[in-house]
Amino acid sequence: MAAFSKALELGATGIETDVQMTKDGIVVLLHDESLARTTGRHQLVKDMDYAELKTLDAGSWFDSAFQAEQIPSLEQLLELIKHTGTILNIELKNGIVLYPGIEHKVIEAVRAFQMSDRVIISSFNHYSLVQCKRLAPEIRTGVLYMEGLYRPWDYAVALQADALHPYKYAVTPEWIAEAAAHGIVYHPFTVNEPLEMERLIDAGAAGIITDYPDRLAEVLTRKGAQTE
After folding, report:
1. Sign of the CA dihedral running 52, 76, 72, 24
2. Residue 225: pLDDT above 60?
3. What torsion do the CA atoms of 155, 127, 161, 105 make, to the nearest 10 degrees?
4. By CB neighbour count within 10 A (0-12 exposed, 13-18 middle, 19+ buried), where does 180 fall?
5. Rounded to an integer, what distance in angstroms lies between the CA atom of residue 118 and that of residue 120?
6. CATH number of 1-141
7. What's the pLDDT band for 29 if we cut at 50, 70, 90?
8. Distance CA 67, CA 61 (A)
9. What is residue 136's three-state secondary structure?
């Protein structure tokens, strides 16, 4: 949870997190399907109960100062940001490992915290996005992809998605404008350099996914000052 608290401290207006699901059906925040890299435990998230997962040290791999960090649940993050106005982008990591029912679990949690209007569900598994829209039409969805798709706004409309979440190079001002004409916005990832941020802001991106919210905040402040 330290990373999310730090992001808020640095001025992030939104948070992106990946989710997996434990053996007993708890949605947890973790990028990898395996626990090996972040905890040293050579096991998959799907094969462990949440109670056992919470006993693992999930912070020391990054720095000894975070030795006490545990793998948090989605509910913990929702609790952290529920009174902040922060937007939450939840990426369903159900491609390498399929988690039956994860869409329902995520939507259930979001609705329980009355945060449907502040959440975007994204995934590289586009079948999951269709399922999310069927279950919760009021929650926005974003189509994650790496390549230069042909007319991606048409594809997004076919999925009833609200946003395109392409890798940063699969974006042009012309595509952003065409998507906007179809009611679709762009949120490119992972944009970490200030010059890239400026290029995408100037191109009309509605949001930027970055590892450095402080850099983005500085760029936005500077550009705001330039337009006044």
Report:
1. positive
2. no
3. -170
4. middle
5. 7
6. 3.20.20.190
7. very high
8. 8
9. coil
Amino acid making up residue 204: G
Phi, psi of 122 (to 5 degrees): -125, 160
pLDDT above 50 (res 228): no
Give the pLDDT confidence score for residue 11 in this predicted structure. 82
**Packing angle, helices 194-203 and 213-227, rounded to 10:** 50
What average pLDDT does the structure give for the chain?
A: 95
Residues 7 and 30 sit within 8 Å (Cβ to Cβ): no
| pLDDT confidence of residue 224 | 82
Please report, for the chain, the start and end positions of each structural domain, with discontinuous segments joined by +. 1-141, 146-228
Same CATH fold assignment for domains 1-141 and 146-228: yes
- Residue-wise over 194-215: b if at least 16 C-beta within 10 A, else e? eebbebbbebbbbbbbbebbeb
pLDDT in tens, 78-109: 999 999 999 999 999 999 999 999 999 999 99
For 143-167, the pLDDT digits (tens) are 999 999 999 999 999 999 999 999 9
Say how far apart CA 194 and CA 2 lie, in whole Å. Answer: 24
CATH of the domain spanning 146-228:
3.20.20.190
Question: Residue 73: what are its φ and ψ, rounded to 5°?
Answer: -90, 165
